[in-house]
């Protein structure tokens, strides 16, 4: 009988540096970074990517704030934008599958996190994800 290949989980690591992704948005990082699984690291990046894509489509030139807040053994990732400062291109806004935020919610929840997205009072929009870190015993 042939030997079964050994499958190893990738080692936990710190979240990737989001500064190149964030560009001109304000980035605030608070707390002490924690180790996360590679899947959590990818999910955090996808939350920021999708939210910034939506800002460019639905709120061009809006003020954007990106936050990474390490707390309680995990990380909160948020992207908040103000109102559009330029005219919205209706064709661009209508492009895409329309399932980006729904897919992010599923991804975050499958990882044991929470996800919210919605309009802000007075205008703008916020995307917020809470993702788990890796416990000291190596579990997530």
Tally of DSSP helical segments = 4
Beta-strand content estimate:
25-35%
Mean pLDDT: 88
Topology, number of strands:
5
Strand order of the largest sheet: 1-2-3-5-4
Instruction: Provide the helix percentage.
Output: 25-40%
Radius of gyration over all CA atoms, rounded: 17 Å
Q: What name does the CATH topology of one domain carry?
A: Heat Shock Protein 90
Tell me the CATH superfamily of one domain: Histidine kinase-like ATPase, C-terminal domain
CATH class of one domain: Alpha Beta
First-to-last CA distance: 34 Å
Question: How would a textbook summarize the main sheet?
Answer: 5 strands, mixed
Structural class: alpha+beta
Residue stretches low in confidence (pLDDT < 50, at least 5 long) are none
Shape label = globular
CATH architecture of one domain, by name, is 2-Layer Sandwich
What string gives the helices and strands in order? HEHEEHHEE
Structure explained in plain terms:
With 140 residues, this protein is an alpha+beta fold. It has a domain of 96 residues: Histidine kinase-like ATPase, C-terminal domain (Heat Shock Protein 90, 2-Layer Sandwich). Helix content is 29%, strand content 25%. It has four helices and five strands; from the N terminus they run αβαββααββ. It has a five-stranded mixed beta sheet with strand order 1-2-3-5-4, with helices on one face. β1, α2 and β2 form a beta-alpha-beta unit. α2 packs antiparallel against α4. It is globular. The mean pLDDT is 88.
